[in-house]
UniProtKB/TrEMBL annotation:
Primary location: membrane
Transmembrane residue ranges: 32-57, 98-119, 126-150, 181-205, 226-248, 290-315
GO cellular component, one term: plasma membrane
UniProt lineage: Bacteria, Bacillati, Bacillota, Bacilli, Bacillales
Protein name, per record: Multiple sugar transport system permease protein
Length: 319
């Protein structure tokens, strides 16, 4: 009961008044909280939501620059029709999807192995975390420029090491071929972003009670059984979180190919983001560039949903 009865069985009016005042006070605090969040919500909407919606709106228009600014003419799905009949778009879509799947899969495997190794090392755990964060802390442009020096065919350190080991006879320009450029990008990306996966998975490992592993070992389970039956199912949320974040980042890759390969040779490493930049800022096809951006978002959402569904089915099958 929200109030107590009086001495003669009458309701305690003062108790009802106190409850009403408490609820009024809570409502006032809630309104004050909303008012305090309003400025930040307006800023977030202005810098994120509005550009996204405006890009969608622009993708349905043919945009031309004029003396007074620009002119927009509604064309419906014409820009998307241009993309459907563009071999460059389909090549970029295939490359971006292939690049995202391979790099994310490799990063999840390496990240899991490194996270398990760090989790079992107690004495040097802090030092290992600091070393792991160095690649992730570097700006991608700086990292890409560093890898361009490593891959350089004249003074690159990679050629010097491989020649010293007698694995190659002459210097190789690694990003000079289509296959070499793609592999060079993947290695650079995996080196930089694997620590991000390690940090997420290591946090998930530390949240698993040690008693679960001890009980499995006492029941006679081996290391692989303990991992597959205990550790892996309990890490599924951390793995899914890391994978979704990395898929989003991999599909939006721009600075790495822009600095390391320039999208070449030819269009071998032209991602969807690079293709959109070329359409928007080099060719001034604003409607087509906006359509590329919107199509990329739809592809990312589709691939993320497919991954989450497949991962959930895998976990339920192994449970």
């Amino acid at each position: 009961m929200p109030y107590a009865a009086g001495a003669e069985g009458q309701p305690d009016v003062s108790g009802r008044i106190r409850v009403r005042r408490h609820r009024t006070h809570q409502d006032g605090d809630r309104r004050a909280g909303y008012l305090m969040l309003l400025p930040s919500a307006v800023v977030v909407a202005g810098v994120t939501v509005f550009p996204i919606l405006y890009s969608v709106w622009m993708s349905f228009h043919d945009v031309h620059l004029t003396v007074n600014g620009y002119d927009m003419r509604f064309t419906g799905l014409a820009n998307y029709g241009t993309l459907v009949h563009s071999s460059a778009f389909w090549h970029s879509a295939w490359f971006t999807t292939y690049y995202a799947v391979v790099t994310v899969f490799a990063e999840l495997i390496l990240g899991m192995l490194i996270a398990l190794a760090i989790y079992r090392v107690q004495r040097l755990k802090n030092l290992s975390l600091v070393v792991m964060l160095i690649p992730w802390s570097l700006i991608t442009v700086v990292s890409a420029q560093m890898w361009s020096y490593i891959y350089n065919g004249v003074y690159g350190v990679l050629n010097a090491i491989l020649q010293a080991l007698h694995l190659i006879q002459a210097p190789v320009t690694w990003p000079g071929t289509s296959t070499g450029a793609v592999l060079s990008m993947m290695v650079a990306d995996i080196w930089k972003t694997t620590p991000f996966v390690v940090i997420i998975l290591l946090g998930g490992l530390q949240m698993i009670p040690a008693e679960y592993h001890e009980a499995a070992v006492m029941d006679g389970a081996g290391p692989w059984t303990v991992f597959w039956k205990v550790t892996f199912p309990l890490l599924r949320s951390s793995i899914a979180l890391a994978a979704v974040f990395r898929i989003l980042q991999a599909f939006g890759v721009f600075d790495l190919p822009f600095v390391l390969t320039g999208g070449g040779p030819g269009n071998a490493t032209t991602s969807l983001a690079v293709l959109g930049e070329q359409a928007l800022f080099q060719n001034l096809h604003f409607g087509v560039g906006a359509a590329v951006a919107v199509s990329t978002v739809l592809m990312v959402l589709t691939l993320s949903l497919i991954f989450l569904s497949a991962f959930r089915a895998l976990v339920e099958e192994g449970a």
